[in-house]
Amino acid sequence: MIELIDITKAFDGAAVLSDINLSFKQGDINVIIGPSGSGKSTLLRLINQLEQPTKGTVLFNGKNASEPRVLKTLRQTAPMVFQSFHLFHHLSVLKNVTIAQRKVLKRDRKTAETKAFQALEAVGMKPYAYRKPAQLSGGQKQRVAIARALAMDPKILLFDEPTSALDPEMIGEVTSVITNILKNTPDLTVILVTHEMAFAQSIATRSIFMDKGHIIEETKGNHLFTHPKHPRTQQFLHKEGH
Ligand SMILES: Nc1ncnc2c1ncn2[C@@H]1O[C@H](COP(=O)(O)OP(=O)(O)OP(=O)(O)O)[C@@H](O)[C@H]1O
Ligand SMILES: [Mg+2]
After folding, report:
1. Residue 35: nearest ligand to its CA?
2. Which pTM value belongs to this model?
3. Is residue 139 within 6 Å of ligand 1 at its C-beta?
4. In what order do the strands lie in the sheet with 63-64?
5. Which pairing describes strands 156-160 and 55-60: parallel, antiparallel, or unpaired?
6. Centroid of ligand 1 to alpha carbon of 103 (angstroms)
7. For 168-171, which contacts have Cβ atoms below 8 Å and span 24 or more sequence positions?
8. Which atom of ligand 1 is nearest to the CA of 44?
């Protein structure tokens, strides 16, 4: 459903991703791990075209993702959940979850609100619909951000370190919400970057290790975590306390 073909991305002439070839199939839970600065966020941003490749092509269902019409569909079906939540602070939880539905999907208010309440229910945040983000904990904010993505009826869900801005006691609340969603949405394609190794291992149907802008190793399922072949992968997992 998403293909990256010979992708290179450079900033100011310095390559941060080199010759990346990857394809993502429907229903897979793709977990991406790797050291800081290895290009994981850049890879996610290329997938939903927040960044353009310096070289190479991103295909979405076989079509070039940079074409305006393809890009529009891609943006509608592949929301991203960020490390730092990216909520609108002046809007209520409910408004945060309806605004993109109204603007991007052109849903009427009632439909958008019904959908928002369902999504908030799925992440355990329905009772907080009329609060503002400032009145929520980090874990609660992230659950709202996940509800906002879910309310778009995504085909692909992108997560960029969804727990790394959270206090330790809130990490589990967010990882279990994500695990639950994956259980209840079997067709959803997920591409998730994380430093939570146990969580990654528990959900992966495919695992990818990146270093210095390259894909070093990838496996089906979570074999990468149990049987890493490449010395760099072994070293990284060891360092992460795995
Ligand atoms: N907009 C930008 N302009 C210039 N350099 C950038 C930009 N975005 C990322 N980089 C550089 O690209 C490299 C890869 O960054 P990226 O954020 O993709 O890494 P990462 O694997 O997500 O790291 P982390 O685990 O710390 O989030 C880094 O060296 C970073 O400084
Ligand atoms: Mg990153």
Report:
1. 1
2. 0.95
3. no
4. 14-24, 2-11, 55-60, 63-64
5. unpaired
6. 30
7. 170/137, 170/138, 170/139, 170/142, 171/139, 171/196
8. 18
- pLDDT at residue 10, as a whole number: 96
In this prediction, residues 37-50 reach a mean pLDDT of 94
If pLDDT is split at 50, 70 and 90, which confidence band does 169 have?
A: confident
Q: Indicate whether residue 11 lines ligand 1 (CB < 6 A).
A: yes
Using an 8 Å Cβ cutoff, are 78 and 159 in contact? no
Index of the ligand 1 atom closest to the CA of residue 12: 4
Of 72, 188, 30, the residue nearest 122 (C-alpha): 188
Q: What are phi and psi of 183, to 5 degrees?
A: -65, -40
Per-residue tokens: 128: 């907080």
Average pLDDT over residues 100-128: 96
12-24 average pLDDT score: 95
**Residue 240's pLDDT band (cuts 50, 70, 90):** confident
**At residue 199, does pLDDT exceed 80?**
yes
